[in-house]
Amino acid sequence: TIPVIAIDGPSASGKGTVAQRVAQQLGFHYLDSGALYRLTALAAQKQGVDWSDESSVTRLAAALDVVFEGETILLAGEDVSQSIRTEEMGYGASKVAALPAVRDALLQRQRDFARAPGLVADGRDMGAVVFPSAPLKIFLTATAAVRAERRYKQLLGRGEAADLAAITADLEARDERDRARAVAPLMQLPDALLLETSNLNIEQAVAQVLAWWRE
Ligand code: C5P
User: Fold this and answer.
1) Do strands 193-196 and 136-141 pair parallel, antiparallel, or not at all (unpaired)?
2) Cα 94 to averaged position of ligand 1 atoms, centre (Å)
3) Ligand 1 mean position to 159 CA, how many Å?
4) Which of 116, 133, 165 is the last residue of a domain?
């Protein structure tokens, strides 16, 4: 069987960056499962489908014409790498991700990422549902204040306007929504190791994951 490292955690925890670097270091494939939900939300918006219309959104999710080429993501041939990263699509993703039939429609597509020599899978239900027998599961987090600060710097770095108080409020609201939902709620699994990164930089977080992997 293909080895899988499953990494989950709240938004803006840095799990995506850490997961990608771990994959690079090990020569493993990388699954950004959040991107699939963001793509589904974007596809729905483009087709004028409401994010709460479960059967229509499910049809779109099952038929997603997506190509992952390194950092570039193509939806029906169009480069949407940037347009799926907006706060709006993050919100849309969390809406469509709450629909059970949509999650089912994306399940096999996610499992298909597990190819030799291994996979680092990033996202909510990687350890619970998609790859329950993953030998290493990690819950990567940081305090809301630290996560807000990281997102704030990221936005400034891109030359975008940013308001730290508003970002903190948004993060806390999204965490609350993700924790409270019936499907794939945000939580640390009993068999997941806790990686608290408030006082770690990216290199230190990556090093910890690699150390656990080698154990
Ligand atoms: O990780 P990212 O911010 O791209 O995820 C966007 C949203 O998609 C999350 O807030 C979550 O609600 C949802 N999601 C999910 N299951 C996953 C990945 C993302 O429910 N495996």
Assistant:
1) parallel
2) 6
3) 25
4) 116
Cα 211 to middle of ligand 1, angstroms: 26
Are residues 181 and 166 part of one domain? yes
Question: CB neighbours of 40 closer than 8 A, spacing ≥ 6?
Answer: 57, 60, 61, 64, 93, 96, 102, 106
Q: If you measure from the C-alpha of residue 35 to the centroid of ligand 1, how many angstroms do you get, rounded to a whole number?
A: 8
Q: Quote ipTM for the complex.
A: 0.98
pLDDT score of 133: 96
* Cross-strand pairs, 121: 6, 31
Question: How far is the C-alpha of 99 from the C-alpha of 102, rounded, in Å?
Answer: 5
| Ligand 1 neighbourhood includes 123 CB (under 6 angstroms) | yes
Q: Which atom of ligand 1 is nearest to the CA of 11?
A: 3
Report yes or no on 215 lying in a domain.
no
| Span 65-104, pLDDT tens digits | 999 998 899 999 999 999 998 889 988 998 999 999 999 9
Residue 122 in contact with ligand 1 by CB distance below 6 A = no
pLDDT above 90 (res 43): yes
Round to whole Å and give the CA distance between 155 and 158. Answer: 5
The protein residue with its alpha carbon nearest to ligand 1, atom 18, reads: 34
CATH assignment at residue 178: 3.40.50.300
